[in-house]
Design goal:
The chain contains four helices and two strands, in the order αββααα. By secondary structure, it is mostly helical. A hairpin with a 6-residue loop joins β1 and β2. α2 packs parallel to α4.
């Protein structure tokens, strides 16, 4: 930092002890590789904590969110195609699109915890959701653009 203008006189933040500083630095580090542990922070500081039951609840929540994203991606919530010019219909579609994208980002942020279990349940939830709602196994033979009133993610 010596050769950079305005940076030579900066000093590191002070703490009471070096062990306190090291503990704080270690507690704020984020994993940058996948790890397999129930001791993780997912989406919120301190959640799910160290309790294995809360970790299981977090995994179930992410699984359900992933399925919900796929359902919103492939469902038909509004009426016929002829109502596409209606302003109210457009507002509802826009709100539903925002909800779908918001939930998708929540799942993405959960996966960014780099916890292996979170990654597996997110992928599993998306795969199961696609199988049930998007794979046409259950009789949906419509074109992708006509099967949903939301802009498609995969078309």
């Amino acid at each position: 930092m010596e050769g950079m203008p305005g940076m030579g006189s900066m000093s590191p933040p002070t703490t009471t002890t070096s062990s306190n500083r090291n503990h704080h630095a270690l507690s704020t580090l984020m994993h940058m590789t996948f790890f397999w542990s129930t001791d993780a922070e997912i989406l919120f500081s301190g959640w799910p904590g160290t309790h294995k039951g809360m970790y299981a609840l977090a995994l179930v929540s992410i699984f359900v969110l992933s399925i919900l994203v796929e359902w919103l991606s492939h469902c038909r919530l509004l009426g016929k195609e002829g109502s596409s010019g209606d302003v109210a219909s457009g507002v509802v579609r826009t709100v539903m699109y925002g909800v779908r994208i918001g939930l998708a980002y929540l799942v993405m942020l959960a996966v960014m915890s780099f916890n292996g279990g979170v990654f597996l349940v997110a992928v599993g939830g998306h795969a199961l959701g696609f199988f049930v709602f998007g794979s046409r196994v259950f009789g949906k033979s419509q074109d992708c653009e006509k099967a949903s009133d939301l802009p498609p993610l995969n078309c």
